[in-house]
Amino acid sequence: MSTRRFKAYLAHKDSGVEWLGKIPAHWATKRLKFVTQRRHRDGTLSALPPDTEVSFVPMEAIGENGGLDLSRTRSISDVSAGYTFFRDGDILVAKITPCFENGKGALANGLVNGIGFGTTELYVLRPTADLENRFLYYISMTDAFRRLGVAEMSGAGGQKRIPDSFISDFRQCVPTIAEQREISYFLDKKTAEIDTLVAKNERLIELLHERRMSLITRAVTKGLDAHVSMRDSGVEWLGQIPAHWEVQRLKNGTSKIGSGKTPSGGAEVYVPNGVIFLRSQNVHFDGLLLDDVAFIDEQVDAEMAPSRVNDGDVLLNITGASLGRCCVAQLNGMRANVNQHVCVIRPKATRYVPTFLANALSSPAVQAQIFASEDGISRDALNFEQIAELEICHPPLAEQRRIASFLERKTAEIDSLVGKIRQAIGYLRELRSGLIADVVTGKVDVRERTA
Question: What pTM value is reported for the model?
Answer without folding.
Answer: 0.82
